[in-house]
Amino acid sequence: MQLKQRARKLALVRxxxxxxxxIDIAKRKHWAWVVDGRTEVPVGSxxxxxxxxxxxxxxxxKIARAKEKAGATRVVVGMEPTGHYxxxxxxxxxxxxFTVVIVNPAHVKASKELDDNSPTKNDRKDxxxxxxxxxxxxxSVPYLPDGVYAELxxxxxxxxxxxRKLNAALNQLQALLDEYFPEYTEVFADPLGQASLYVxxxxxxxxxxxxxxxxxxxAELRAASNRRVGLRRAQDLQxxxxxxxxxxxGLDAARLxxxxxxxxxxxxxxxxxxxxxxxxxxxxxxxxxxYLLSVPGVGVVTAAAFLGEVGDLRRYAxxxxxxxxxxxxxxxxxxxxRDRSRTPISKRGRPGLRHVLYQMAMTAxxxxxxxxxxxxxxxxxxxxxxxxxxxxxxLACKLLRVLFTLVRKQCSYDPxxxxxxxxxxxxGLAA
Length: 431
Fold this sequence. Notes:
The protein is an alpha/beta fold. It has helices spanning 2-14, 53-70, 86-95, 105-111, 123-135, 147-180, 184-187, 194-202, 206-209, 214-224, 231-242, 251-286, 289-292, 300-310, 319-326, 351-367, 369-380, 388-409, 421-426, and strands spanning 18-24, 29-36, 47-50, 74-79, 99-102, 334-335, 338-339. It has 3 domains: 2-135, Nucleotidyltransferase, domain 5 (2-Layer Sandwich); 150-278, Orthogonal Bundle (Helix Hairpins), CATH 1.10.287; 287-331 and 340-426, no CATH class. It is globular, with a radius of gyration of 29 Å.
């Protein structure tokens, strides 16, 4: 399979007269080197261009002249996917009719000393290495999603950012409570509940809780929670306040800090809810929601995040392509008489995809009957039992295969067929 892929890549750069453009990406200024695909000889000298419309137009002029000089009919442009700076240029070049490919930064790093036996790094050298790797067929064709899949990818990235900021604010809240009222979470397990938010806004510290009679506190809690909590919770809160070991100093400054933290928590909570609602709407537009959500353990957010990472599942020929994209493919390390039985995953892929599949696997292990049994089997089998994380990775790969099959066949999840007849019988799940 790998040899065939390599052959197809080499045919792309050598099948007809081609110039290969290696580009080193930076924030403000890029470097480029044009090479004749037949002779592997540079066409002109390396040059730089600005990360702007004028700079992009200059690049097109340079490529046009090099293409004419080399008598080429095709242009292949290779670059490293450096942060997000490569995307506008890649899109621009694709619209200009060029074939854009990306090279692995690890390959560029490993190739630095091959020609000059020097670890020297500079932008011109990196541009040359990018071109050489393309000529060797060591590249991949990037997928730049458009339409609803582009929307899902952006929304997924936004949700991750909102989640991180919300968690940071919640950690700040917990740290402040640990200092001034460490017993608080014994009374309110969820600090963001209606009654808890009222207390944190108006009576956040033990001194504030004990300043009013328990009946008044109970009435305030009933009003704040729509009568969900009342006297019993008020009594527990005052008892926690009486035995609190929280520090009694700096209360005015702590109240100000707490108010600011709560504002941030509420803000990011609202942004998160807004983004998840948009993800649900975009997921429906794909036409794939009914298949993905039919799997117990797969929710709207995880399904939307999954499609945001992989794009349209129908563009893949085999589920193993997705496994490799996630970096869940196994690696081997054997040499001579050394035989290491461990085969760790490569982790050479999209970390976001790897994360969402892992989250799906954890949920499936808890809520999906078939996957729960499979997880138990992985952990307890006599030969090569897996550790917890290893079992979840194996489960994620199985789930990936199931999701791919459901979309390709346009069918819903069938518990009787999820694991196959042999595995179901092995696990005692056969009908």
